[in-house]
Amino acid sequence: MPEGDTVWQAARRLQEALAGRVLNRSDFRWPTYATVDLTGRTVLNTIARGKHLLTRFEGDLTLHTHLRMEGAWKVYAPDERWRGGPGHQIRVILGADDRTAVGYRLPVLEFLRTGEEERVVGHLGPDLLGPDWDPERALGNLLADPGRALGEALLDQRNLAGIGNVYKSELCFLLGVTPYLPIGALPEDRATALTALSKKLLEANRERPVRRTTGLPRQDLFVYGRAGRPCLRCGTRIRVADQGDGSQERPTYWCPNCQAGPAPAPGQAQKFRERYPRRPSASG
Question: Does the record bear Metal-binding in its keywords (predicted)?
Fold first, then answer.
């Protein structure tokens, strides 16, 4: 699942493959840009901004992409088999010298002037993996709405950029509180630790092929994806329910013994079971 660390890795792959090189292949399989041809243009760089990717070209041009849930960027050598998915899922191909970058299942793809990038990323809070990281500002953003559930506040990219559903659940477990706790009720010491722990987790995982939060052998995650399985600390069965504002609800995992605070409304767990009648596959 793409989160800040995954997007950072994608940006690095694109940077290493294309930066400073002249494109000799350009293929956009996107109705709005089907006639766009970037061959002959030099790729300047690619950066990650939260969960957004910005690939810049000479001529004040930026390609903005977002992976959301299923998107991916893959880089291939000339004789390497493409394994990112079937051909009909390819949205863009950019080739230069001995590397080809292929974007699969990209739900967001648009061009804009490089000088206007703030139009698509200016709303984001401090980036956990970016040069603009500011823990005090991020915490201030989170606490600006003290009645909001912690899990929802963490997912709001306007507060801090880079946390997704996996880290939301794992952070709440490590802090010892449920994702449904109003963030204003978070003890002061844990509120202070929240931003530091968030950055620590993403930095530790941005170089790893498999995301890990536990430090335990053969166990990658404490709670995410482990509904119905015993907690790695206390043995209590991990619970799962939906969380969100109604327009975008996501499964949330927690241990009812290790994590203090309110549980979701009874209907949230039922709604999750209706959406996912079979138990989600375990992770770790």
Answer: yes
Q: Which of 2, 126, 179, 251 is catalytic?
A: 2
Domain assignment present for residue 127? The answer is no
**3 is annotated as an active-site residue:** yes
The residue among 61, 180, 183, 195 whose CA lies nearest residue 117 is: 61
Cα–Cα distances in angstroms (integers) from residue 232 to residues 63, 218, 256, 282, in the given order: 43, 11, 13, 13
In the chain, the number of structural domains is: 2
Query: Is-catalytic flag, 110?
Result: no
Marked catalytic residue, from 49, 51, 74, 206: 51
Q: Which domain holds residue 235?
A: 135-275
Q: Does the pLDDT value for residue 283 go beyond 70? A: no
* Active-site residue, 105 included: no
**Catalytic-role residue among 3, 49, 56, 99:** 3
**Whole-prediction pTM value?**
0.89
For 178-229, give the DSSP string.
-TTSBGGGS-HHHHHHHHHHHHHHHHHHTT-SS---S-BTTB--SSTT-TTS
Residues 155 and 236 in one domain: yes
143 and 268, same domain (yes or no):
yes
Q: Which of 13, 41, 229, 250 is catalytic?
A: 250
Look up residue 270 and give its two tokens: 């039922």
250 is catalytic: yes
